[in-house]
Specification:
The complex is a heterodimer of chains A (about 425) and B (about 475). Chain A is an alpha+beta fold. Chain A is built from 16 helices and 11 strands. In chain A, the strands form 2 sheets. Chain A has a 6-stranded mixed beta sheet, with helices on both faces. A 5-stranded mixed beta sheet of chain A has the order 7-11-8-10-9, with helices on both faces. In chain A, strand 4 (about 90-95) and strand 5 (about 100-110) form a beta hairpin. Chain B has about 475 residues and is of the alpha+beta class. Helices cover about 45% and strands about 15% of the residues of chain B. Chain B has helices at about 25-35, 85-95, 105-110, 135-150, 155-170, 175-190, 200-205, 210-220, 235-245, 300-310, 315-325, 355-370, 375-390, 395-405, 415-425, 425-435, 455, and strands spanning about 10-15, 45-50, 55-60, 65-70, 115-120, 125-135, 225-230, 270-275, 280-290, 330-335, 345-350, 445-450, 460-465. In chain B, the strands form 2 sheets. Chain B has a 6-stranded mixed beta sheet with strand order 2-3-7-4-6-5, sandwiched between helices. A 6-stranded mixed beta sheet of chain B has the order 10-11-9-12-8-13, with helices on both faces. In chain B, strand 2 (about 45-50) and strand 3 (about 55-60) form a beta hairpin. The chains are: A alpha+beta (about 425), B alpha+beta (about 475).
């Protein structure tokens, strides 16, 4: 790494770190404040360490259902109040559920951020779930689920991940399997809420044009009353059964165009080679300069789009490649080309120019990310929930920028091998 | 613009993606914000070159980054008949090679610098946007000006871009919502350009040739028909000089005007049913001809639509269809944002289309007959007023809003006068907008799903075969 590059990257990190204020309430709620007074806006984020990863068979989608229900009723708010109050305040807000966490955010003009704390506190400790309000919302979630079932790309994705992962709960769709959505009860939602929604299992991040001392005082006022019940951190699910041969998933639907996904088991962030996977993905499939784009789109004309990325989570995950073939008949050629480029990267290191491209992108992205305080808040919340340290997204950039050519080759040789591969194909129905 | 085929679905929001159909309201709120905040005086300037090129600059030195957009006022609405998709392809190909730099070298340099580039066209404009570190701004401007003045439109690059557009057009018809939208536009707009997607369809794209794109560029990419927006860590005076150095020799020329659409309101409800036995949900789109962004009552119309079905879960449609009845995850309505009059659209995806359509139509009729309440109007004002700083706080937001401001020729004083314009929108204006622009009983309805005509319970309608 060049000296000036390192200094610039560290400068970006320092520019964030010096503006972050940390505090932990007695009940265990972590409060993080990122001060950025360059625009009169503020973002309130409450994240819980709860996602589809925590769900048991038969109860997939329960975390997502809880997220929906948490907007309904508390002991002081009625259904519809959250949206009415936030719309009237000009807030952009939403909630989302992912594999590893559930998050809620409200972005405001900076003079009204306390409203976000008041509502998130109500959500954390004062929700009630009347039987009468459950069925209607379950129907909404079922309709949301059907949207995925009618989208061929989503169906491929869902079945592909379930085939690539056998033991890890990441194999389940976050929204849940449709039969599970039909089956769980309002009592399941209540139990899930009591177990997971508490200050010791959450992080509150406020970012923007705010006074950190005021945020701290208001956090104490609104959240301090709740009792913290530390949730035993879920066990690391461990390593998948070793894959000893390629798996293939074929989804046939009424579609005009095929699609192709390829994945390899890859190490999680605990493994020193994890970030070499990110660099490999960049070299193989990021942008028009990438090797696969040049080969499949420019030189051979077999496909119109390619891409690659590596999942960086606490658990081992997957390294992904996607391709949009021009025709189903070209898929065997595409598969050979993908395999060929991967083999090549396992033998020939990335060029100096490719490594420079990766590092320049890391640096540029670091600057671009600061354009939006709400974006920094999301990074911080995710880092804290996943890794127990809000700084982890800054550390990730440094690790990524420090990857060597040798590590990229080693990653390819260890992980991007045929026996570790799952291929997913979306194909037109057979006539 | 074309996006990579995205299959990653790890997170599910409780709300559908927020509608961004009402962007000019951010300007409204921003005006209010300006009046109450001396700390954030707007460093927005508009300069012009002798050849007619307009340059809008917004200095923001928080970060060492810069965002640029080159916008051509001729979008897909200017595509020739039978050549639908030309504007989109022309913009796409601008950054795929010049007379002195092959396409691979252009994309290679952009990616080497860590810069980001997008290009494409909607109905109103063709554009190229670039984001870079400020230290690289000169190199990016070199690329952009070379692309506009000396695009190669290399035959191989053209073939690749057209192939991709064709496959994207085919892929889009694998998504039920796209099929419904395609049919709705085709039936509503007939022979007008709005009948087909801005990026064209498989029929038009198949016949496009390189010469079509070259002709479009020569006709429409003229300095007197374009403007540049620059936001971020830039110096206005230096930037204007830099652009004049690069684009001052660009020759102006005459630019044609597009044909306005003339879709007719039908005398009775017309319904197109597309039967798909493989679906477990029906996709619905209904509406009728809409309004223009340049209409005098544009603000009142959009506030009215926000109350009716634009405010996601808290709109009238959202409450009736989703919150109270649990019939759908996403329900909404809006008026197209276009220079020429577009469409009014209401959409829903549900297993009970009969009830959902009825409830949505009831809400339209109620709005048409009674307008909004005082509380609804106040909420709408508060929403757009309060949320405006969010959309304008980032460089990307500044770029987007400045671009819209110039495209629809609101003028820079629009920002100062906007608060008054908004305050002037009274309940009577909402009622008038509803009366003038909502036409219950004159709908075009498109339904796709595993349902029969009887399942929809629509009486006294004309079925479209």
């Amino acid at each position: 790494m060049g000296f000036s590059f390192v200094l610039l990257l560290l400068a970006v990190s320092a520019g964030i770190e010096e503006n972050v204020h940390e505090h932990t309430l007695k009940n265990g709620l972590k409060v993080l404040v990122y001060v950025d007074s360059s625009a009169p806006v503020a973002s309130v984020n409450a994240y819980y360490r709860l996602g589809s990863y925590d769900e048991q068979p038969g109860h997939t989608g329960l975390s997502h259902m809880l997220e929906h229900m948490s907007f309904k009723r508390t002991d002081i708010y009625r259904p519809g109040d959250f949206d009415r109050i936030l719309d009237s305040a000009g807030a952009h807000n939403n909630g989302f559920t992912s594999t590893f966490f559930t998050g809620y955010f409200e972005n405001f003009a900076s003079d009204r951020w306390e409203l976000g704390l008041r509502l998130e506190a109500a959500r954390m400790g004062r929700c009630v779930f009347p039987d009468s309000e459950f069925e209607s919302e379950r129907r909404v979630v079922a309709e949301e689920r059907r949207l995925r079932e009618n989208d061929p790309g989503s169906v491929l994705w869902e079945q592909f991940e379930s085939a690539a992962l056998l033991a890890n709960p990441q194999r389940n769709p976050t929204i849940g399997w449709s039969d599970d959505i039909r089956r769980f009860t309002v009592q399941d939602v209540r139990d899930w809420y009591v177990k997971y929604y508490n200050p010791a299992n959450a992080v509150l991040v406020v970012a923007g044009d705010v006074d950190p001392e005021e945020v701290r005082a208001k956090a104490e006022q609104h959240f301090g009353r709740f009792k913290g019940k530390p949730v035993t951190r879920r066990d690391y699910y461990g390593i998948e059964p070793r894959q000893t041969g390629e798996r293939r998933v074929v989804v046939r639907r009424k579609v005009l165009m095929p699609a192709m996904l390829v994945a390899f088991h890859s190490p999680g962030a605990r493994d020193s080679l994890c970030y070499a996977g990110d660099v490999a993905a960049h070299v193989i499939g990021a942008g028009r300069s990438s090797r696969l784009h040049r080969r499949l789109v420019v030189e051979q004309g077999l496909a119109t789009n390619v891409g690659a990325w590596n999942s960086v989570e606490t658990d081992p995950g997957l390294f992904y490649i996607y391709v949009t073939p021009k025709a189903e008949s070209l898929i065997p050629l595409i598969e050979r080309a993908v395999e060929g480029e991967i083999e090549r990267l396992g033998k020939e290191p990335p060029t100096d120019r490719e490594m420079e491209r990766v590092k320049n992108n890391v640096l540029a992205q670091a600057f671009y990310s600061r354009d939006d305080a709400a974006g920094i808040a999301r990074f911080m919340a995710r880092s804290h929930i996943l890794f127990g340290d809000w700084r982890h997204f800054l550390i990730e950039r440094e690790r990524l920028a420090a990857v060597t050519k040798k590590e990229v080759i080693e990653f390819c040789r260890r992980f991007l091998v045929p026996d570790n591969r799952t291929t997913g194909l979306l194909l037109p129905e057979e006539r | 613009m074309r996006n990579a085929y995205s299959l990653r679905l790890t997170a599910y929001g409780r709300k559908p993606c927020p509608a961004l159909f009402l962007s000019p309201f951010w300007l409204l709120a921003f005006g209010l914000w300006l009046l109450t905040s001396s700390a954030f005086a707007l460093p927005l300037f508009r300069d012009s070159l002798p050849n007619g090129l307009i340059i809008l600059t917004y200095e923001d030195h928080r970060l060492p980054i810069a965002d640029f957009a080159l916008v051509c006022r001729s979008g897909a609405a200017f595509d020739p008949a039978g050549g639908e998709g030309t504007a989109d392809l022309a913009a796409d190909l601008l950054m795929r090679g010049t007379s002195t730099m092959p396409g691979d070298s252009v994309s290679g340099l952009i990616e080497l610098l860590g810069a980001q580039m997008r290009s494409g066209a909607d109905y109103d404009a063709a554009n190229v946007t670039l984001r870079c570190l400020a230290k690289d701004a000169d190199r990016i401007l070199d690329l952009l000006s070379d692309a506009v003045l000396h695009p190669a439109f290399d035959q191989k690059e053209f073939n690749r871009a057209r192939d991709r557009a064709l496959i994207d057009a085919r892929s889009s018809l694998d998504e039920p919502s796209e099929v419904v939208d395609y049919e709705y536009n085709r039936l509503l707009f007939g022979t007008h350009r709005y009948a087909l997607p801005a990026s064209g369809d498989t029929g038009s794209l198949r016949t496009l040739a390189r010469d079509d794109v070259v002709r479009f560029h020569q006709t429409h990419f003229r300095p007197n028909n374009c403007f540049v927006v620059a936001v971020g860590d830039i110096d206005r005076e230096k930037l204007v000089r830099a652009i004049e150095d690069r684009l001052g020799s660009w020759a102006p020329g005459p630019v044609p005007t597009p044909e306005p659409p003339s879709p007719a309101f039908t005398e009775r409800i017309r319904v197109k049913l597309i039967t798909r036995p493989d679906m477990n949900q029906s996709y619905v789109e209904f509406g009728h001809p809409g309004t223009s962004m340049l209409d005098e009552d544009m603000l009142a119309t959009r506030i009215m639509a926000y109350v009716l079905g634009g405010g996601a879960l808290s709109s009238r449609m959202g409450v009736a269809v989703r919150e109270q009845a649990g019939l759908a995850y996403d329900v909404r309505c809006w008026f197209d944002r276009r220079t020429l009059a577009g469409a009014f659209r209401a959409t829903v995806q549900t297993t009970d289309p009969k009830t959902a359509i009825r409830k949505m139509m009831d809400e339209v009729r109620l709005m048409r007959d009674s307008g909004a309440t005082r509380a609804e109007l106040l909420k709408a004002h508060n929403y757009y007023t309060g949320s405006f700083p969010l959309t304008y706080s980032s460089n990307r937001g500044k770029l987007r809003e400045t671009w819209q401001l110039e495209l629809y020729r609101f003028g820079l004083d629009w920002l100062e006068t906007f608060p008054d314009k908004v305050r002037a929108v009274a309940l009577a204006d909402i009622e008038k907008a509803a009366r003038d622009h909502l036409r219950p009983g004159h709908y075009l309805i498109v339904v796709l799903g595993n349902v029969t005509r009887d399942d929809l319970g629509l009486a006294d309608v004309e079925w479209i075969e």
